[in-house]
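Marked as duplicate of an earlier ticket. Keeping the data here for the record.
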Amino acid sequence: MRALVIASFPDSLVLFRGPLLDAMLARGLEVHAAAPDLPVDSPVRRQLEAKGVVVHEVPMHRTGTNPLADLSTLFALRRLMRALKPGHVLAYTIKPVIYGLLAARLASVPNRFALITGLGYAFTGEATGLRGALRAVVRRLYALSLRGAHKVFFQNPDDRELFLSLGIVGKATPTAIVNGSGIDVSAYAVAPLPQGADFLLIARLLGDKGVREYVEAARKVRAQHPEASFSLVGWIDGNPDAIAQGELDAWVNEGAIRYLGRMDDVRPALAACSVYVLPSYREGTPRTVLEAMAMGRPVITTDAPGCRETVKDGDNGFLVPVKSVDALAEAMLRFIREPALREAMGRRSREVAEDKYDVHKVNAVMLRAMGL
């Protein structure tokens, strides 16, 4: 059998879907992957080809809103599928799901699957102006594409209920919930906790990730405990909700945070922190939280879709309300006042990662549901 996996961010094929591709190959599938920005000399392309995956570069602007450019994506994917004739197509993130599943229907692919890894800019925040118009368009396109899906995978129950309530997914369309993308617990080994109060956030630098709340909470905590450190890993991209470079520079210059830039391997940053923080407004299942949990770190995150599934409040971390700087700062202060919590909750995080989020367990569920 031949399977095609479609992505919008090529690195994710290795970082997040690598074990899934390996599992497909181990089942004897001929595995193909399609994504933008995969020239012949691309390191990601070489890594995928070394696994045995056949790689195809397709035009796609991940954060673009030009309908003509998106049509070129649709037609390119249809041409590819007509040439390959895959038996199964799996697409994840917004544009691959929309245009990948539409192309799969046009190319008469017999088995079509979508993985909703999060709702992103078009579904979070106030539905006004550009965001409101974009939200309406994305909902209609999602509904059109998912009408032809044989199964839609969600990473949390809130996203599934939202899609059902809005009619984006019809009641006749089969759905399933999986525990995120999973985490390779052997690759993210437990690291000793540092002695100090060292907090860390890893995220694309977007308002919806709670980056501003993290900085504000850092200011409040440092006013009482100047020895505490707050690190930020991530990058600014073309998303309309992106943090401005000047705003980031101001935070660094005032000493509110230490900016570590973009890291291909976040394990050194996680090993250097004692508490992981993600004040996001909404997620599918946050990969960085799973990485932190696997490495034995307690977590502070929001009581928001996708985030609340990873933390049991008071067990392996704390849940705080979305956008509440005061609650976020208070949770940070608890880890400073009660340092024994870090080790106890970090140990529980690792146990949850092994039991619930092991990537091999997650992938086995998906492949079984896809008939592979």
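See parent ticket for discussion. The CA atoms of residues 2 and 87 lie 6 Å apart.
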